[in-house]
């Protein structure tokens, strides 16, 4: 009997034999363009594959089939990651990707089986209101950042995060888009303060609890992503629904948590905010700003890791920039992973469109191949940490 490559890999996934060593072997070829592994005849991946790794995609479905759009995106575009949601915002339904722990685990394993390179499987599991894995689906309860901050015991925060990490581990999710390190400058902020997403109005307390939260996730082998750079806590409106101008409310104190976590060496990834701040860039929001991402985050704060955009389909981007311009400016600014949640606007072909746009811009000379390679290398460096064994908290 002949067994297809897809079924062979799927069988290994279902038997939980996708070990860290296997993961590393899949992505272990380095980023040096001169590097050639003569034993395996492996050279640098094609430009097309490197571009694919820069796309993280949301999708519909509790399970997948051969004709699922996400399967096409994984197998043809080679997208580097997926993002999971429990609710479908457009359809106003509570059914999207999450129904139960067993269902979700099988879904993630199916997705991984389709991919040549292990996927970053991301979710917003912050705790409290922003939890995609809710008790009604059979998952453990969680505490919000605000509640943990009010308790103000970092060991409790670390334990809470570790429990979240255990939950994610069981369903094979490997990247938590958390913690929020926005400072609670404006408690009436509809995107942060009102949703209890910030640990504190004190930047130093945010640093302490965010550090504990990240350590808790790391203890369970889960990657983290701090957000929303350069700080969403002082805003009066929500970038999901339109322009968010923080020029008059933002202060440099809101950078402190980002700076401290980077300096501690704990920062796996940073998510940008679609935040306009004329103090940083008088023309573009942070997600599209060379001054914000390269000048401030990379050069001044010294961050060398993966920069992930907030959802590129939010109104703060979609209503002011075309798809081509937004993609171009994010990449030119130094961003690495373009996130299309497909939940505020649904386009089953968005990954194919974005992939084609980037390749076209490279062929036109608007984006350098070396710039794509830089992002690819940062993403691969992050992925090499996937599947690491949990560690004991000391």
Task: Outline the structure in words.
α5 links the parallel β2 (81-84) and β3. The chain is α/β, with parallel strands linked by helices and 394 residues long. It has helices spanning 5-14, 20-27, 47-52, 69-77, 101-114, 145-151, 154-170, 203-219, 256-263, 290-300, 315-318, 323-333, 350-363, 369-383; strands spanning 55-58, 81-84, 120-123, 125-127, 130-131, 175-176, 223-224, 226-229, 244-245, 269-272, 275-276, 306-308, 338-340. It has one domain (5-383): TIM Barrel. 38% of the residues lie in helices and 10% in strands.
What's the mean pLDDT score?
A: 90
Termini separation (Å)? 50 Å
Structural domain tally: 1
Helix content: 25-40%
Radius of gyration: 20 Å
Low-confidence stretches: 1-29, 33-42, 390-394
The structural class is alpha/beta
What is the fold-level CATH name, i.e. the topology?
A: TIM Barrel
Described by strand count, sense and barrel closure, the largest sheet is: 6 strands, parallel
